Automatic annotation (TrEMBL):
The keyword Transmembrane applies. Keywords: Cell membrane, Membrane, Transmembrane, Transmembrane helix, Transport. Belongs to the binding-protein-dependent transport system permease family. PANTHER family: ABC TRANSPORTER PERMEASE PROTEIN MG189-RELATED-RELATED (PTHR43744), ARABINOOLIGOSACCHARIDES TRANSPORT SYSTEM PERMEASE PROTEIN ARAQ (PTHR43744:SF2). It comes from Paenibacillus phytorum. Residues 74-265 form the ABC transmembrane type-1 domain. The keyword Amino-acid biosynthesis does not apply. This is ABC transporter permease subunit. It is found in: Cell membrane. It comes from the Bacteria. InterPro entries: MetI-like, MetI-like_sf.
Amino acid sequence: MNQPKTQWNVIDLAFFFFMLVIAIILLSPVFWLVSASFQGSGEIFKVPFKWIPNHISLDNYINAWNVGKIGEALWNSICVSLLMLVFHVFLCTFSGYVIVKHSFKYKNILIMFILATMMLPQEITFLPIYNVVKSMGLINSYLGLAIPFFYSGFGVFLMMQFARSIPNEIIESAKIDGSSEFSIFLRIVMPMMRSSMAALSILAFSFIWNEFAWSRIAIISDSMRTLPIALSFLAFSSDNSTNITALLPSSVIAIAPVMILFFIFQRQFIESVASSGVKG
């Protein structure tokens, strides 16, 4: 039997090329950044710009690593992000599951307060949080940088939507078999919500990786600078000059982990959004 051939009509082709043009426009700054990071300061501002340099040099990356201390900042950002990510994903997933699948007094009021936290600018909470973190002796530490982001109203609300898709029959069967509530969450709920947890991980990691305001307040020593803080010092030094040859490769290093994480978990991210019925 002859297999039906897939034919593209004029509308499909037009839509494809339109989206291709949009993708090129959106990605062109990233392409420029990567290309310029391998060029010298004299070549970066040449007109026309050479998208493919004649000579690829790693001197800018060596300069960023040694002079800009970007390696130290990269390690700090990784430690803070992983610490925050573990607690954030676990606590938000657990809270979302409990709120959706259990009934308790004042449940609706609790949900209202959680949603209310999403309407407040986070910056107005930094002063009381700073006093709490300072009283705990955690200023200028990884834990002090991560604590304010262990929990979020957005994360709880997002995981509530995913938890609704878990059949109640599975949970009831596990209870009949004698499983405890925490055992049900660890062995049944979390594996069923791994796609949604991957989606939350991408969103949470992107936020904490680029977080600047709280880090600027809670960091005292230069050795504790995260990547956003290090980039700001390269862009605006004490003499109002910009170390462009160190700033460009540092920016490439800063965006690489987020892009890698998304490409690794993009399938789970798309699956979780599609299965939850959440629409933008």
